[in-house]
Amino acid sequence: MSSTASEASTYDLAVIGGGPGGLAAAATAAELGARVVLVDESPALGGQIWRQNRSRVVPAAQPWLARLEAAGVELRLGTTVWQATPPGNLHTSQGPIRARQTVLACGARELLLPFPGWTLPGVHGVGGLQALVHSGLEVRGRRVVLAGSGPLLLQVAASLTSHGAQVLRVAEQAPLSRLARFSLGLGPGKTWQAVTLANPRFRASSWPLEALGTERLEAVRLQRVGGSEILPCDLLAVGFGLTPNLELPRALGCRIEEGAVAVDEHQRSSVRGVFAVGEVCGIKGAPGALVDGLCAGASAGGTTIARPLLRKRDRQRRFGRLLTRTFSLREEIRQLARSETTLCRCEQVDYASVAAHPDWTSAKLASRCGMGLCQGRICGAATQALFGWGPHGVRPPLTPVPVGALFSHDIPPPPPASRESRS
Amino acid sequence: MSRILVVGGGIVGTAIAADQAERGHDVVLICDSPIGGGATAAGMGHLIALDGEAAKVELTNYSLDLWRTVELPDDCDLVVCGALWVAADDREMQTAAAMRDRYLSRGIGAELIPAAQLAELEPELRPGLAGGLRVPTDAVLYPPNAARYYWHRAVKSRARHLTARVLTVESHRVQLRDDSSERWLEADWVVVAAGDRTSALLPELSIRPKKGHVVITTRDAPFVRHQVVELGYVGTTKSRAPVSVACNVQPRRRGQVLIGSSRQEDTHDPRVEPAVLDRMLRRAASYFPGLTRLTALRAWTGFRAVSEDGAPIIGSLRPGLAVATGHEGLGITQAPGTARLLGQLLAEEPPDLSAAPFDPHRFGSEAA
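Predict the joint structure of the above. Result:
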């Protein structure tokens, strides 16, 4: 179908986000007979976790892609939703989309917190480095340190190792006692314990204090039990967990609780006709997102959710809460930045210039933090974690788009010919 | 020394607070949003010698002279880029010529730009335009920090800030709510500089909100050099159509481009409206076709405060109660003059310019 429809076509369901949750919701609803459109910013399906490109095919995603195709789900890839009103009026970079219902499967992003040196070349987000490797960054023989918090650290460490990187350290800020409880909570046969124990580079109660280097990263200083250690390295991957992408849910007016979209047992948000699945309604990982998607697809497709599926979903939600408890950040993580440490990378605003203000709006107006290209996605989440500043208002475009994409229809016609003669 | 309560922390309120504090008065500024927020933060932030009725022009030029005397800190991002009024056809070029004569008669430099030179000055303008009028002294700045500049001056003269919501204003006193408790503050003068919220506090004054949309781009290669405004803009400022748009495109010091403008009556809804954005951006792109390839970072709205006759309202309403609002799109430009004029009126000094056109009683209401 045309990707630049100039008039809104009406669907039964629009699914925003092509990760596991979105794929499952779209396939399920379409198989129940709904006319479904799936929208994703990136040119390929899979989301962050199943990120695919020309050289990378993710086996786990394949059955879902086949089901989408068989069920006739329409795809709008490379399409940015820049504004939305309930239940499914979407303004996109490729024209308007209208749907009777919407499933929000917008996923999560990394929480990056400022510490001295975190903006040096060679320092990456954990997920960011993973994505770079998937799209071809050569890490063979490079010395890598991973630091921060959450299961992603170990996952990415394993992936980097398989790509030939020399992983020197995986520093997890959570204490060993909590990690042990987490392992027990997973039950037998889960991979976490095995991976942890198998990795001699893993340290609990350890976190990044400072990235060292002049032109680029040369070493990292890590807090460890009883002192600190300096590890010379080529790459440092940091991440302090994931934070849901709430811009679109908030533009639609969905109620947010504890930093995630609040949903009921049918995955319905507080806004009629708007569902949410996966990380956007609470960090829980890909298996949890799939189950959410199956539930939302069934609800949006007009059927009841099977009991076993509901039980599975409840288990996944419990796992999500366990994740949150296990990897909650210790107070020291909030004290890492110095006055002169960059807090807003886009506008080059230092920590002290932001911390001097009572709230986000004042800080933003006076220092311009959050006014740059990332629209406050990074420093806004950081100030929320550091200072407890409430989430800031969302404004269109929810993601930067070409000015021309804000036109509701086509490019304006050329000026009248009569004026040309004067030039 | 008198106690002065200033209601409103925008550019007009902060300029008044500075003027009053520097006169030695005990000033308390009350607002419930950050200093320099509200319409001040939403506006395009131009210092522009807009053509129009004599009284407004006099206040504008008086204010622009005052702006030139202040040493703005770097974070105000002042750029004296000049304004370029663009004529689409010969009729508009005649308008430009008449404007030039008026500017020159007031001692403001202005030059007519023929079509060929227009392309040199602004290569991104579409071909086929008739020419323009350049006013080299016009400038743009970052308004929230301009308000903070005035506020810092006020603080230096011992003004204080109270974060609270003002519920009621009366002669000599203000009722406010902070931390969920309500109380009255007494003063010699209460000065209401609350923009489009003024009518909610003073129902006898009719101040209508006029909604505007603005879009800002990401930083990129230089796109425009001047604040480029279509000559039709002056018409839209007076328009009573439900929605009017005009091309108004500014360079910002940090390499962004600010795109306006729209005017809407009869709405209090602060949401960005895609249909209005569409019209506004198409209008701008009809002058700058290359705008469509720039990246839009943010869109927002704000409410201009408009009086019944379109002129500001500055002066004493009753003993112990004064007002300064109704500046429409010229709040930033006219703030220093407004503060100085109000200061002279309250001190019963001879004003530097005629205050009658801004008299709060001119509308003939019972308040008179």
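The CA atoms of residues 122 and 158 of chain B lie 46 Å apart.
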